[in-house]
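Cont'd.
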Amino acid sequence: MTDAKNTNQSPVQQGEVMIHVENLKKSFGDNVVLNGITQDIRKGEKVVIIGPSGSGKSTFLRCLNLLEVPTSGHIIFEGTDLTDKNTDINAIRRKMGMVFQHFNLFPNMTVRRNITLAPVRTGYMKQEEADAEAERLLARVGLLDKADAYPASLSGGQKQRIAIVRALAMNPDMLLFDEPTSALDPEMVGEVLEVMKELAESGMTMAVVTHEMGFAREVGTRVLFIDEGIVKEENTPQEFFSNPQNPRLQDFLSKVL
Amino acid sequence: MKKYFALLLAGVMALSLAACGGSSSAPAAPAETQKEETAAEAPAEETPAAEEAAADIKTVEAGKLHMATNAAFPPYEMISDNGGFEGIDVEIATLIAQKLGLELVVDDMEFGSVITSVQGGKSDIAMAGLTVTEERKQNVDFTESYATGVQVIIVPEGSDIQTVDDLANNKMIGVQDGTTGYIYCSSPVEDGGYGEDHVTSYPNGAMAIEALKGGKVDAVVIDNEPAKAFVQANAGLKILDTEYIVENYAIGISKDNNGLRDAVNNALKELIADGSVKLIVDKYINAEN
Amino acid sequence: MGTLFQDLAAQFNQAFIEADRWQRYLSGIGISFTVTLGALIIGIILGVLVAIIRTLHDQQKGTDHSVLLSVANKFCEFYTTVIRGTPMMVQLLIMGFVIFKSSRNLVGVAILSLGINSGAYTAEIIRSGIMSIDPGQMEAGRSLGMDYITVMKDIIIPQAIKNILPALGNELITLFKDTSLVTVIGLTDLTKAAQQIQAKTYQAFMPYIGIAIMYLVVVMILTKLLGILERRLRESDRR
């Protein structure tokens, strides 16, 4: 916490705050994973989160849409406190899509149904609207011909692109990416990053946990280094990679770059 | 070949046994005192006719007469207080065995298995209050009848069933699995029954009575003797004065053993003729009245 | 040899043809089917309910439960313990002679008894099926804003069913064969029909061998149908 630079000094800090995290702590039993994180993510930001394994970066991301319930602290998304028991978490999650490391497509459904299930079941769209939206989004990622295929017949890269489309179908205000390329064969990483880049260019607010330093440098507007349950350093990509301050970050970068 | 050899062997054994029995005239050793008394009371002397028959007969186990029964049907067969078997059938069978120079062995089993036991050659005679019907005669041989069984109707006190005829008014009748009460009641209306839809059959009499008390059935048709016990044990039930049916009990014997059938039948006839059977029946039933 | 065949023919005639006895077997097997089907439906409904309540409870371990869920979970545990810890026969006797001592709807009592019994076993099967599904499936569904029940119903259960179909098939077959126990409450199913014909004719061979073949044929048909169903459900894996 004390190591983190004051957020007000960061160069890319304009626009309204989309999600405000206040002193977030999370423990599994005696194991403290997050030890007090305070962060703002503003509309249009692409925040890339890096850190050694076990640092708590994935847990931090999963707390943002309450897949993990925080032990203490507050998460305020578009003015609503998620940690308030009376909050309709389902309504919040519809505005905050998530893409997983292992895609988590529904194997018993066609690609089309994977994409349209949630919009239809939550009453957000009628089946015909959802179908049309699914086709539009599939065309955008170049997978329209796979609409009636089952996930088992797709490559990893195709699966992850479908998973992104599935999250987009709910028309979210923000997307969370939890190591979206870590489970992919190297030759497929590019096609997924390409889609994510396009999304970033279209103005989507994104929080991305990744090991792809190239992506962080190229697409990120801000990079966070989470280690030992706290944000140890944050900066613009240029500063972050060329002029790291924290010795742990220096050590980490020397290993991954 | 094996079969003939076995037959031959059995014949030889039977002959040698008969010879032994003839010389020592040893009676069957009764397992318990009750039977011994009866045997003593019985006026029967071993007649030559019966002894002759014994020479021809083959039994499951040499020198023994195995009786298949279900010892839960008082007063015909039941377990005595000291754990042995007693009852009308048991005592008559003891006398028959004596006449044939054999020792009686009681094989206690489920009622449903009694007939298959003699058919399958596990027991020699079946005595379990068996009622003779034409259909059953096709699959097992019967001796003379030695007693009459009475099927009665049990109803709750205050029931609108007053006579046998009232059963015809779409009532539900409870019976016991495998009994003639079931057979008669479930037969089609044109044959004098009430049809399958008006009969519920339970594994034993006590369950049928339980169903009657609960109201699942309107009446229970069952043998008179157990009926008396049930009514005594359960307040609010009564036996109708009119009997449902009177039927004849006989001994069942495998169709493959004519020698045994004739010998048992002859012995039984003699016991009926000399009054031994009546004495036994009176001791258990008529004496009470 | 000739007489042997004549004997068998006569026995067959007496056991199946005379007095239209084949109708007794037919109505008996009808009862067995009805009870199986009814019990299956009740068993699956109960099984799914209990499995969901128990899984929901287990998944929320460590966090604070609602009191309602804790009570429901305790009740479900009690239910499966009692049902799996007592013989089916005893359950039938209690249902037939204690709880529904006055009911004449024996088919209803039989369906309820077997259904409640089957539910306890089905619940455990379904629970194992739900636990076999990657937790990521639930997370993906929830992250899209669908509620727990919708995700269970549309995503988890259909996949779980596919995994547990062989076990569920065994349960169905067990259930069908267990219908022979309903004879104790007085219901005339296939087994009792044979017992009654044995009592009338004093022959056991034809009625009992006959119904054994009937049970076997039905079970073989069920097995075949389940195999077809399983193959169709697996189609999504192959395409």
